[in-house]
Write a structure and sequence with these properties.
Number of strands: 5
Order of helices and strands: EHEEHEHEH
Number of domains: 1
Number of helices: 4
Strand content: 15-25%
CATH architecture: 3-Layer(aba) Sandwich
Largest sheet: 5 strands, parallel
Shape: globular
Length: 132
């Protein structure tokens, strides 16, 4: 059986690493980030630069979009470029490449910041998924 090809944006981040560890055995994973990681093929690009990220989407079945600036106090310019323009670019790249499914994970800042030291977020960061 052929494994589905899954591209994870923000794969070098904290949540990207958790997703990578959790899905690596069942899917053919690749990443899109500003830096390469050692154990998954990674396309290097900036989400705000459409041309730099577009090739990463070719041949993918699913995209898990986690990339962006996760800081609650991030300056507007960073939020605009990394989270808003970047997300628009990801969805457009998916459309152009014919990706069948996009999983979009927003930030907990949308509903009010909950530090990663509080449950249930601490359980996620600790990898205790059965408790979430």
């Amino acid at each position: 059986m052929t494994k589905k090809r899954v591209l994870v944006t923000g794969i070098a981040g904290t949540i990207g690493g958790i997703v990578r560890d959790y899905l690596r055995d069942d899917y053919e994973l690749s990443g899109l980030d500003r830096v390469a990681i050692y154990d998954v093929p990674t396309h290097i690009g900036d989400l705000a630069d459409f041309d730099s990220i577009r090739p990463a989407f070719d041949g993918q079945d699913v995209v898990v979009h986690l990339g962006g600036d996760p800081r609650g106090q991030a300056p507007w310019e960073s939020v605009l470029q990394n989270n808003i323009v970047g997300t628009q670019n990801v969805f457009e790249a998916c459309r152009q490449a014919g990706v069948g499914r996009v999983v979009f994970a927003s930030t907990n800042h949308v509903v009010g910041y909950i530090p990663e030291t509080q449950e249930p977020y601490k359980a996620v960061f600790d990898g205790r998924f059965d408790e979430v």
